[in-house]
Amino acid sequence: MKITDVKTFVVGNPPPSFGGTWFLFVKLTTDSGVVGYGEAYNSTISPQVMRKVVEDVAERWLIGEDPHHIERFFRRAYSGGFTQRPDVTIMGAVSALEMACWDIIGKEADKPVYELLGGKVHERLRSYTYIYPKPELGETSAIYWDAEASAERAAEYVAQGYTAVKFDPVAPYTSFDPRQLSLEQLDLGEKFARLVREAVGSKADLLFGTHGQMTPTSAVRLAKRLEPYDPLWLEEPVPPDMPENMGYVQQHTSIPIASGERLTTKYEFQRLLVNQAANILQMNLGRVGGILEAKKIAGMAETFHAQIAPHLYCGPIVGAANIQISTCSPNFLILECIQAFGGFHADILKKPIQWEDGYIIPSSEPGLGVELDEKVAAAHAYDGHELHLNMGRDPLIV
After folding, report:
1. pLDDT at res. 138
2. End-to-end distance of the chain based on CA atoms, in angstroms?
3. What is the C-alpha separation between 240 and 173, in angstroms, rounded?
4. CATH number at residue 261
5. Are residues 241 and 337 in the same domain?
6. How many angstroms separate the CA atoms of 249 and 279, rounded?
7. Domain final residue, candidates 77, 95, 111
8. pLDDT of 391
9. Whose C-alpha in 41, 48, 240, 383 is 20 to 30 A from the C-alpha of 12?
10. Where in the sequence is the signal peptide annotated (predicted)?
């Protein structure tokens, strides 16, 4: 079996656009006609440039190769240009292509990918969602900074079956972070935790998500405010480039630290573990280097008695890959989903991901268990150049 063709799809995610403005999917085809789908999670360059990166990596290292040779492909791409170091952009491309290879391998074997990586450990997967505004309010709704509205929305999610909700009231984040939070921001963070806890009681965990906005000392100040409300985690309290600082935060709070959405490859996750910087690892399978790389990270985490909680802020193909790795990993904790994978996340697939009463039910279909609806993808083709996230805000107007 050889890979003969690669095709990319840049798909606009219509409003309210939960999960990003656009998704980048890839399709690999073999000489026997088997098709595999993958997805890249990358926001460092524009989607039109990123699709060229994916195609270039495929043409250099995959076309004409056997899709089963995952290790060979990863090492060639990882070492391309004599770099041999983690690179977010290249690993976004590698992740999408590697994911598509596993989809082909599973289809060829007539098995879900998780059965090829140790077998099913979990019959269902606990899930959580961000506290998103109601669809009719739009993505820019002030709910993100409105503690009362967020608490009300959290209670609605719990009524739907969720046992955990996430929120980040210390945003916005900028290119000029980390910063020392103001007393007003500290007060708001504590207010969110208090009101959401009052709204959900002991029926749901609180996931306090931040995005590296704080200095280590500021993160500790916030953590002390949050401890009475017993969050399940404090997410990425400091920037991801210095795990030693994140370890300092973990040493000064009883709240578990979660991190990893901006990291790639086992090498960066190893630094988290060795520095005791995080006990909950949030790899995004569209960025980390693919499914096998995520399995290696999960294995490393096991030796530290750490858990995995795969990250998702992109499309449902990454979501499907997250499900595969979670199903076969003993140290799985919880899975991020985008509003129960409804809306456009369901429309772009031929058959939606199954979510029931707060849990995801792993598919028994071969491969990744999902199929991209190429007609829908074509109807929502995106020709813009916007990044997923603009962090170029002036620090004087944060």
Report:
1. 54
2. 54
3. 14
4. 3.20.20.120
5. yes
6. 12
7. 111
8. 58
9. 240
10. none
Both tokens assigned to 41: 């999670």
pLDDT reported for residue 41: 96
Q: Which amino acid is at 186?
A: L
Are 21 and 141 contained in the same domain? no
Say how many C-beta atoms besides its own lie within 10 A of residue 211's C-beta: 20
Choose one of 59, 93, 111: the last residue of a domain: 111
Q: In terms of domains, do 102 and 150 share one?
A: no
Which structure tokens are listed for 316? 């449902």
| Within-domain flag for 391 | no
93 and 164 together in one domain: no
Residue 126, SS3 per DSSP = strand
From the number of C-beta atoms within 10 Å of its C-beta (0-12, 13-18, 19+), residue 347 rates as middle
Residues 86 and 202 in one domain: no
Asked if residue 143 and residue 47 are part of one domain, the reply reads no
Determine the pLDDT at residue 394.
56
CA distance 272 to 320: 25
DSSP3 helix / strand / coil % (the chain, rounded to 5): 40, 15, 40
Whether residue 348 sits in one domain with residue 264? yes
Same domain, yes or no, for 86 and 123?
no
Q: Which residues sit opposite 332 in a β-bridge?
A: 308
Mean pLDDT by 10 residues, the chain (398 residues): 98 92 97 98 92 97 98 96 92 98 98 98 97 67 78 96 95 89 96 98 97 97 98 98 97 98 97 98 98 98 98 97 98 96 97 97 98 98 81 51
Are the CB atoms for 322 and 312 separated by under 8 Å?
yes
How far is Cα 184 from Cα 281, in angstroms, rounded to an integer? 30
**Tell me, what's the pLDDT at 134?**
75
Tokens of 35: 């098709």
Q: Alpha helices of 311-359 — where are they, by DSSP H? A: 316-327, 344-347
Phi and psi angles of residue 170, each rounded to the nearest 5 degrees, phi first: -100, 10
Give a yes or no: residue 137 inside a domain: yes
> What is the predicted pLDDT for the residue at 351?
97
pLDDT at 142: 58
100: domain range? 3-111
In a domain, residue 383? The reply is no
Q: Is 302 exposed, middle or buried (0-12, 13-18, 19+ CB in 10 A)?
A: middle
Whose tokens are 């089963």? That residue is 68
How many C-beta atoms surround the C-beta of residue 221 within 10 A?
Answer: 17
- The domain that holds 94 is classified in CATH as 3.30.390.10
pLDDT at 109: 98
Instruction: Please check whether residue 377 lies inside any domain of the structure.
Output: no
Residue 171, pLDDT score: 78
Report the pLDDT value the prediction gives residue 174, as an integer from 0 to 100.
Answer: 87
- Which pLDDT does position 104 carry in this prediction? 98
